[in-house]
Write a structure and sequence with these properties.
elongated, DNA recombination, hpI Integrase, Chain A, DNA binding, 3-stranded antiparallel β-sheet, mainly alpha, DNA integration
C-alpha cells in the first residue's frame, strides 16, 4: 500500500524511539521501562507477523489483528491485555501528533472492558494491623531500621522510592517535616519527578523516633554519590529490594506476636525458610500495600481528600480509583457528619 501523501514515512522502531524520548521528559524510568516492554511486542508484530515497515499503512483492522495476536501469542489475561492495549492507544495518539499514522487512528484501538473492581489491587495493610505492628516494633525494636522504615511508610504514606531518596538533611526535626526531593542524577528519582517534590509534615512522636534512630542505630555511611541517606545500611543507601524484604518480613503476623492465621507450623513454613522468603506468607504485604493502607486510613479519619492528595502526591482521580478502600458504609457515615446541620 502506498504511503499517504500527507503523512511522513516512519518505521515502528523509529516511532517507538521518539515516543520514549518524549515520555522520558515527564515520566519516571520505571514508567519508561514499562512502556518499552509493552510496546516492543507491537514492534515485533509489525516486523515479523504483519510486515508493516511504515506506520503510514497502519489501519484499524491491523490494530484489531494485533490485539487478537497479542492475546493468543502472549496468553494474557483480560487485565494484562487491557493494560497493553491502553498503552498502545497512547502510543498511536503520539504517532498521530508526528504525522506517522492517519488522524484519529487511536480511537480504533479496542481495549477490553473490565467489570467494576477488576484490575484494581485491593491488598493493603489494615489500620489495626499497622498499629499493632508499630506498637510491637516500638517496644522490642525501637528506633531500629525496620521500626523507622515502617513508621515512615505508615505515618506519611510515602512511596518506597521517596523514602529511599531521603537524606539526613531532608529531615528537619525543629520544623517537624521531611523534604522530598527529585535527584535523578544521583540515583534517587521520584515517580512524578519535580512534581513529586514537597514538604511532608511529621508529628512530634515520629520526629523523636527518627532522631533516636539517627543517634543510636544509623550507620555513619554515605552512598555511592557522597550523599548521606536518612535510612542507611552498612553498605550505604538501601536498595529497593532491602526495603521490600524488610516490609514483607515484618508484616508477617507471627513476626509481631500473633499466632499464624493460616494454621502453619513455624518449623515447616515456607515463609520462614530464609530471610527473603517472607513474601510467601499470605498475610505479608509489600511497601505499596502499606501506602494503600495508609491512604485509606487517612481518608477514614476524615482527612480531606485534597490534603491526602497533596501529602501522598497522588491525583484525586487516581486516589479514588486505586487507593481509596473505604467501604460505602464508612463513606456515607462520614458524609452524614458533614451534613447533620444542613
Amino acid at each position: 500500500m502506498p504511503a499517504r501523501h500527507d503523512l511522513i514515512e516512519t518505521t515502528p522502531e523509529e516511532a517507538l524511539d521518539l515516543f520514549l524520548q518524549e515520555r522520558s521528559t515527564e515520566s519516571a524510568d520505571s514508567t519508561i521501562q514499562s512502556y518499552r516492554y509493552r510496546l516492543q511486542h507491537f514492534v515485533r508484530w509489525c516486523d515479523g507477523v504483519a510486515e508493516v515497515d511504515n506506520l503510514n499503512d497502519l489501519s484499524g483492522r491491523d490494530l484489531h489483528k494485533y490485539k487478537l495476536w497479542r492475546q493468543e501469542d502472549g496468553g494474557l489475561n483480560k487485565t494484562s491485555l487491557k493494560a497493553q492495549m491502553d498503552t498502545l492507544r497512547v502510543f498511536v495518539r503520539f504517532c498521530e501528533s508526528i504525522d506517522a499514522v492517519e488522524p484519529d487512528l487511536h480511537s480504533k484501538v479496542i481495549s477490553p472492558t473490565l467489570s467494576d473492581g477488576v484490575g484494581q489491587r485491593d491488598v493493603k495493610l489494615g489500620a489495626e494491623e499497622a498499629e499493632e505492628l508499630l506498637e510491637y516494633l516500638g517496644r522490642f525494636e525501637y528506633a531500629s531500621f525496620a521500626h523507622t522504615l515502617l513508621l515512615l511508610l505508615w505515618r506519611t504514606g510515602l512511596r518506597m522510592g521517596s523514602v529511599r531518596a531521603l537524606d539526613l538533611n531532608d529531615f528537619d526535626p525543629e520544623n517537624e517535616h521531611l523534604a522530598v526531593r527529585h535527584r535523578p542524577e544521583s540515583d534517587t528519582p521520584l515517580k512524578n519527578k519535580q512534581n513529586g517534590e514537597r514538604l511532608v509534615a511529621l508529628n512530634p512522636s515520629v520526629c523523636a523516633t527518627i532522631s533516636d534512630y539517627i543517634e543510636v542505630h544509623r550507620p555513619d555511611v554515605a552512598d555511592d554519590h557522597g550523599r548521606d541517606p536518612l535510612l542507611a545500611t552498612d553498605n550505604g543507601r538501601p536498595g529497593k529490594n532491602t526495603i521490600r524484604t524488610t516490609v514483607y518480613r515484618w508484616t508477617r503476623p507471627c513476626q509481631y506476636g500473633h499466632t499464624c492465621p493460616h494454621g502453619r507450623d513455624k518449623d515447616d513454613c515456607e515463609a520462614l525458610e530464609v530471610r527473603w522468603s517472607a513474601s510467601k506468607c499470605p498475610s505479608s504485604v509489600s511497601p505499596h500495600a502499606v501506602r494503600r493502607g495508609s491512604i485509606t486510613h487517612h481518608l477514614t479519619q476524615d482527612v480531606p481528600e485534597q490534603v491526602v492528595s497533596d501529602r501522598m502526591n497522588v491525583s484525586q482521580r487516581v486516589l479514588d480509583k486505586h487507593y481509596d478502600r473505604r467501604s460505602e458504609e464508612v463513606k456515607v457515615e462520614q458524609r452524614r457528619g458533614y451534613l447533620e446541620d444542613v
